[in-house]
Write a structure and sequence with these properties.
The complex is a heterodimer of chains A (about 120) and B (about 220). Chain A has helices spanning about 30-35, 80-85, 90, 115-125, and strands at about 10, 15-20, 20-25, 35-40, 50, 55-60, 65-70, 75-80, 100-105. Chain A is α+β, with helices and mostly antiparallel strands. In chain B, α3 packs across α5 (about 195-210). Chain B is globular and about 45 Å long. The chains are: A alpha+beta (about 120), B alpha/beta (about 220). The interface of A and B includes residues 12 and 39 of A. β7 (about 65-70) of chain A pairs parallel with β9 of chain B, so a sheet runs across the interface.
C-alpha cells in the first residue's frame, strides 16, 4: 500500500498536502476499496467547509460513496480533469487524482490528522 | 457480529422506505442500534440512481401517473430500475469496517446473496462481466445500487421473486438495451415459493455471506429508534 511520507491522513482515508493552500485527495487504500471510479462530484470553488462536512461523492460501479473534508476552510480550486477522467483517482490518487484545494481557516486542525506512520499502523490494525 | 432484521408485510411507498432507511442510518451511525436489515416490497415505483439516465425511461410522467407508478431520484449508485409487489428489496444498513470496508467487496457480497437465494430454489443465477447484478438464462433477477455514507450503507439489492414489477416494461433497466428481466416466477411458474420463504432465504444468505447473526424484529419495534 502506497503511503507517501509528506502527507497527513484522516481516519476516513483522505489525505492533505499543505503548501500555500492545502490539497485534498483520497488515499491509495481508499481508491482500492472504492473500486473502479466512474464519476466524481466535487464541491464548488468558494464553498466554505467545516471539518468532516460531506464535500464530494465518488461513484464506482453501483456504489455512491461520500467523501469528507479533513480540514475546514474555503475551496480555492477543484480538479476539473476528473470530470472527463475520474479514473485518475484510481491510477494516481496522490498526484493527478487530487480532488480539491482549500484555504485553511484553522491550521491547528492539521495537528489532529495522522502522520504517515500512524496511518500505516491504522491500516495494519 | 449481530444484526437485526425487519420484514415489512405490506408494500411500502418508496418515499416512506427512504425515510425509514435514513432514520435507521442515523441511529446506526450514533451506535444506538446494531446493523439492521430492512426487507420490503414497494408500491410500484421507478427510481433513478443519482447519476441515472432518465432517457431510459420510455414513457412520460402522465403515463406513469395513469399507470399508478411513482417516480423518484435516489441517492444510490446505479442507473434506472423499478420496484413493485412480488419483488423483495433488501436494505442493509450496516457498518462496513476494516478489510470489509470496500464498495467493491460489498457489491460482490450482494450479488452472492442473490445468486445463493436463487440457487436455494433450484434456479441457476450467475454474474456477468461488466453487467453487475445477478442473471439467469431468462434475464436479470437481481439489481444492485447502494450508497455508503460514513461507511454505513443505504439502499441495496432488489430480487424479483413472485413477479417482475410491471414498471420494467416502461424503462431500459440499468440502461442495458435488449436485456430481459426475470423473476423466480418466470422460471418456476406454479412452483414459485412464497414471498415469506424467499425473504427467509435472503436473510439467511445475507448472514452467511456478510458474517452476521440475524435476529428478526417487527417493523413496529424499529419505530422507537
Amino acid at each position: 500500500m502506497n503511503i507517501p511520507d509528506d502527507l497527513l491522513y484522516a481516519e476516513s482515508h483522505e489525505w492533505v498536502k499543505v503548501n500555500d493552500v492545502a490539497t485534498v485527495g483520497v488515499s491509495d487504500f481508499a481508491q482500492q476499496q472504492l473500486g473502479d471510479i466512474t464519476f466524481v462530484e466535487l464541491p464548488e470553488v468558494g464553498d466554505e467547509l467545516s471539518k468532516k462536512d460531506e464535500v464530494a461523492v465518488v461513484e464506482s460501479v453501483k456504489a455512491a460513496s461520500d467523501i469528507y473534508t479533513p480540514v475546514s476552510g474555503t475551496v480555492t480550486e477543484i480538479n476539473e480533469a476528473l470530470e472527463d477522467s475520474p479514473d485518475l483517482v484510481n491510477t494516481d490518487p496522490y498526484g493527478e487524482g487530487w480532488l480539491f484545494k482549500i484555504e485553511l481557516s484553522d491550521e491547528s486542525e492539521l495537528d489532529e490528522l495522522m502522520k504517515p506512520d500512524k496511518y500505516k499502523e491504522m491500516q495494519a490494525g | 457480529m449481530n444484526a437485526q432484521a425487519a420484514i415489512f408485510e405490506d408494500p411500502v411507498a418508496y418515499g416512506e422506505g427512504v425515510r425509514i432507511q435514513k432514520k435507521i442510518h442515523a441511529a446506526r451511525l450514533a451506535k444506538a442500534i446494531p446493523d439492521t436489515l430492512l426487507v420490503m416490497q414497494h408500491q410500484p415505483v421507478i427510481t433513478l440512481g443519482r447519476r441515472g439516465r432518465d432517457n431510459y425511461l420510455t414513457v412520460d410522467s402522465t403515463e406513469l401517473e395513469n399507470l399508478g407508478i411513482d417516480y423518484h431520484v435516489s441517492s444510490r449508485g446505479g442507473d434506472i430500475t423499478c420496484h413493485g409487489p412480488g419483488q423483495w428489496v433488501l436494505y442493509p444498513i450496516i457498518k462496513l469496517e476494516g478489510q470489509s470496508a470496500s464498495a467493491r467487496g460489498y457489491l460482490w457480497n450482494l450479488e452472492e446473496i442473490a445468486i445463493r437465494t436463487a440457487s436455494d430454489f433450484g434456479v441457476c443465477a450467475y454474474r456477468r462481466e461488466g453487467m453487475n447484478g445477478a442473471w439467469t438464462d431468462e434475464g436479470k433477477i437481481a439489481a444492485i445500487g447502494f450508497h455508503i455514507k460514513r461507511w454505513v450503507t443505504l439502499h441495496g439489492m432488489s430480487f424479483n421473486a413472485a413477479a417482475v414489477p410491471e414498471g420494467f416494461s416502461k424503462i431500459v433497466p440499468c440502461g442495458l438495451e435488449g436485456q430481459p428481466v426475470a423473476a423466480l416466477k418466470t422460471i418456476l411458474g406454479p412452483q414459485t415459493p412464497s414471498m415469506d420463504a424467499v425473504a427467509e432465504r435472503l436473510l439467511q444468505n445475507f448472514g452467511a455471506v456478510c458474517g452476521r447473526d440475524i435476529t428478526l424484529v417487527k417493523p413496529s419495534e424499529l419505530a422507537s429508534v
